[in-house]
Protein 1
Amino acid sequence: MPLHPPYLLFLGDAPDSLAAKTATGIRHWRPEWCRGQMRLPGCAADLGLPDMTLEEARAADVRTLVVGVANRGGVIGESWREILMKAVDMGFDVAAGLHERLTDVPGLVQAAQRAGVQLHDVRHPTGRLAVANGVPRSGRRVLAVGTDCSVGKMYTMLAMEREMKTRGLKATFRATGQTGILIAGGGISVDAVVADFISGAAEALSPENDADHWDLIEGQGSLFHPSYAGVSLGLLHGAQPDGLILCHEPGRAHMRGLPGRQLPSLDECIRLNLECARLTNPDAVVVGMAFNTAGLSTEAATRLLGQTADAYGMPCVDPVRTGVGQLVTALVGRFGS
Amino acid sequence: MPLHPPYLLFLGDAPDSLAAKTATGIRHWRPEWCRGQMRLPGCAADLGLPDMTLEEARAADVRTLVVGVANRGGVIGESWREILMKAVDMGFDVAAGLHERLTDVPGLVQAAQRAGVQLHDVRHPTGRLAVANGVPRSGRRVLAVGTDCSVGKMYTMLAMEREMKTRGLKATFRATGQTGILIAGGGISVDAVVADFISGAAEALSPENDADHWDLIEGQGSLFHPSYAGVSLGLLHGAQPDGLILCHEPGRAHMRGLPGRQLPSLDECIRLNLECARLTNPDAVVVGMAFNTAGLSTEAATRLLGQTADAYGMPCVDPVRTGVGQLVTALVGRFGS
């Protein structure tokens, strides 16, 4: 069930802009879908969008109210419930990527049924999934893989989608996590499906397509993260990527959430990802790398990206600093448009 | 929540003994827990246990009625419901490993609450799981891994548990699938947990223990099965095995459920499993192999097991034909008792 833009972004009482990072991501990647923001008293986040009431949003043809804020524990704030209920009663769809479900807010399901609108708990997959079959499908695919969690996989794939569309290529970002789903207007939170269906979810997410169409599939976790590697492997097998982009944050002290546990080397990460990818796509290659160098000076970042590109014979970019043009060029150079 | 033996094994109207293979496994591995069987008219399976009514089972101190039969689709037969309800009303716990849940049988949950008994849907994990942390824990662990699904991992681990106990070693079978859980009296169906928690489930399943205690952990799937490899990898990381036993069925034409897809070589399977296992246990080794040679003649099987053992420098057994004594001897030889 796809989401319906345009969106009104609900920021609640976000104490800072970090708490509204989901909304920030949507605003950044889908500005054309974002008609306005709604803020409660005390909200310290500001997306630079018009502040709107629900009535104003309706007049602006908004179809979905998106909860773009996360508070501690991922729960739905008491003060939000009245607004969500009113939105539903007024005929808006509502979408959220929180742990707590919209469908668990007392009365909201019934109100949505009465109003004929949808509630989207994008962190919690609902559709029926099939077990993966590993059969190749037409169309081309890129998957972001990483040395760790939270190293820029979603950002890199969204940047590549934008760059490829600018060049007139057929490209679709495929979301595998909640923020990505709100940005894409659809997708599957693969880490929330029943374990038997990880690869099946990846296959469903990226169905067969035109031979010259590219899916840019958001990665999750890392084959080297002891908490989440099963998700990463299932996604890698189901995605059947032709090209991998290796994402990394230089200088990170340890695997996310696990002090003392070192990150893998780029070599290890390339080798294991390729070996596993080739189970379902024997021709898989690593096309390039995307580093998050926010912690480095411009000089140090430029030097590191250049040295890495030389050492591995493939482009190494920082999507924020340098853009992803070189990755797209390398992809097209290898596979054609 | 552990299951409570002794069991009465419910065979329903099983059309043949294969339909009652769950009950057959429990009877084989836990004869001391099996007081009787209950069969409906038309049942063609027979475990060689006394046929019992619920009243007779109560007199025989049975505590749990175990649904040991699977019909097409894994549903709970209409004709079974009355018996399940009566069992609950009489104070028996009820356990089943079907797709359809006992808790979805109309009225059964309420009846269980009234009677103060438990319903165990062992295919559907219920406890709260934590995300894995990858921290080493005391005690020793063996995990069965495989070239494919359904190559004898559960059987091998149960046979090793029995052999180790016979030798006076501290050993516990740890179940990761529904039949294993009914045999062990507890465990977690790791392929049915939410994907983020696969490794966390494996860690919870095999908690820290005495330094000389062995957990024998039932494996699931294969790193080389495109449908289920994510489950296998998460289990491998969470189990943190000291020793792996590689399970294989020689001569299998293709990966289970995927005609045309070849099995990996033993070399590939050893290498990738060890590489991945060493993320959470750098000292992991393959201790031996267990082949299901049911499809071979005695001569051919003996020759193959011998040749494989010589080639790899480790024991290669068929748990049914030869027993698993050599695997236990190799384990003790390497790690001490």
Protein 2
Amino acid sequence: MTGPAQATPHTSSRSAVLDVIRAAGTISRVGLVRATGFTGATISTVVRRLIDDGLVLETGRAESTGGKPRVLLQLNQSARYAVGVHLDIAGITYVLTNLGGSVVARMSRAGAGAEDPPVVVERMAREVDALIEGVGVDRDLVMGLGLVSPGPLTPTSGMRLTPPAMRPWEDFPLDRALEEATRLPVVLDNDATAAALGEHWSGVVGGSSTFAALYMGTGIGAGLLVNGLTYRGASGNAGEIGHICLDVDGPECWCGAYGCTEVLAGPAAVVAAARADAELARAAGLTDGDGEPSRPSVVAEFAAVARAARAGQPAARAILDRSARHLAVAARTLANIMDLELLVLTGPSLAIAGSTYLPVVQEEMDRAFFSRATHPVTVRLSTSAATAPAIGAATMVLQSELVPLRQGLRLPEDLSDAEPGGTARTGAAGG
Amino acid sequence: MTGPAQATPHTSSRSAVLDVIRAAGTISRVGLVRATGFTGATISTVVRRLIDDGLVLETGRAESTGGKPRVLLQLNQSARYAVGVHLDIAGITYVLTNLGGSVVARMSRAGAGAEDPPVVVERMAREVDALIEGVGVDRDLVMGLGLVSPGPLTPTSGMRLTPPAMRPWEDFPLDRALEEATRLPVVLDNDATAAALGEHWSGVVGGSSTFAALYMGTGIGAGLLVNGLTYRGASGNAGEIGHICLDVDGPECWCGAYGCTEVLAGPAAVVAAARADAELARAAGLTDGDGEPSRPSVVAEFAAVARAARAGQPAARAILDRSARHLAVAARTLANIMDLELLVLTGPSLAIAGSTYLPVVQEEMDRAFFSRATHPVTVRLSTSAATAPAIGAATMVLQSELVPLRQGLRLPEDLSDAEPGGTARTGAAGG
């Protein structure tokens, strides 16, 4: 089912053709007919429009098996760009990608922390400006901004039932505020779902178009890709394995349930266990001289515990191992429900400690995955675990070009004569 | 996204058109163009073929908003039939459906029990004969037989890692043996997946095309329908919630893992708990005078405990309540991972005790489903819980007509001149 020139289902012929060209690198019109199943006439019309719009280039000719050589097509990579932003309490990660989804600029800045949402939004707008200007890209070519953050998200905007530290963001009209501040169309999504898309476009999954990305940042979640499309569920919040129950008699989670993966295995649980061990807390630098927290975020604290474990500190190793064993059981639940063949470990916390978690998760799959008699589950560590959500956020913008009639989202053609005020863009996201 | 005349994705235009006609009841060619997105010319060609094949009838004319009245199309319900068989240790359920998926005959017989697979297959062939002959349907119009059983199944045939009682079925070439015995093409699938299909075609889900069917028979599983298509996963074993972990320190399951839903909540666990209480065991009739098991299957024993609970026996109520609470947590995990809006309780054991389980599952969703701030999860009790898997099995055959190029499956047109020996049908299923 998979392969570089294999079409994935799309709602428009334009989207399917662009996606196949992107995946193939170079491809002829005949190749597009084969890959998409569209008629030659449809391909001819769609390709002409894409060339007229400057999104696709003709590039040399392929050897043919007879008849005249075939003209090859490829994306005009630098025709359009997209901004991807991963907003988390612990850090904000930015990427700028070209039309092909390649990262042309990236940067990391301080997380949302305890700042008020409007203050963070103004800062994000300045940081997006710096990202685009720093690499010298014409702002008129930037199609939009994808922003991803911990779920659950409502379909229209904003976060719901957020972790305690992000409560001020509930009911904040994030998409509209960010559109006004950046003068870019904004799409919002769940960071774990975006991580799966990011892995698909840039990661370690090779030709696989069906897999789950197990995400650990400040929280734990999963993104699901099925035949190249994100599986989103009823409200875009599919994959919430951070709040499945691993222990009916377990401790209470901030979400109100008991024995959740996040309260047993998440970075905050790891840090709390490390801090309960005064010697380890000191050795890992979790506290300053007065016993007060000395690091800016739970991910930074988690990184300190992970470093202590790598340095051979037995208490740190035991704590991480316990977290890994719980995460492995959650991963097995995900594999059982989705009947997975491939699972990718990703996200900022697994960028730090993934090598500790990988063998534990793989062992759990080999030992106890229910359908193991029919096929194994391969577990891989992402090579872009820290930036996968931001890359996925940018590709959401690129894919909204692939579906140009997406409600309210301006087409690239409209960008040059758009008014700076941006009222026409309000409501571009979500809907 | 849903509605009676809404096309769901299919691999062929014929399949999409048949499915829309079935769902709509009656529909015009113009309506088909709207519902499928195909051109008028494509619809015209496909409909002509379907009428020529006798699968679709023209039936009267609809009022038009102008111009000539539109001819309405409907399925020729009695043009083809399909057999659905649900094979379980505790019982074998048969249905015969017409082309529209309506049940025209049903029967229940003794389960596979401890009999040898070849003996059971010969019996199933006789019972299928009785089913078809009993209702006077011309056997040449029977397209094939769908057989569903507890998973996991291999893609090619047979069961793997089956519950202990079904071990003799591992490696038994069930599809080929059944094809030879019944002289019908056979498709195999997981009973929980079939239950979801059965609910979609006949059940309580109304217009919903995305939901999960939580199945409890001898075992526990789930079937997933996404936009009207079964979500099957890498090997057709998606939805295995019977073997997700609810308690990392829980008891060992027959599958080798610990704290599985099935070992905590399944009918065998309920019966074991009831039997451990000598008074309850006697009151529920679980044992004969000598303390030996007196009922033919675990589902029959489970039914006895459920009856005792309904009669107000406190120990029986407590045992069922404990099972329901564990099943509810598993259901919440499923809802969190799939971001569900609708869950249907189905399967033979929930046909018996569903009214006890329904409020407990609904309460767990309302209280602890992670995305509850964005939308609720509705839980419904199936109205065809005992037969949904068999109905789903038959619809798999009907849908393979909808995909007529399915590997090796004979087309209905070929049935009248097929040789009785059936070698051409070997390998019809799975592949």
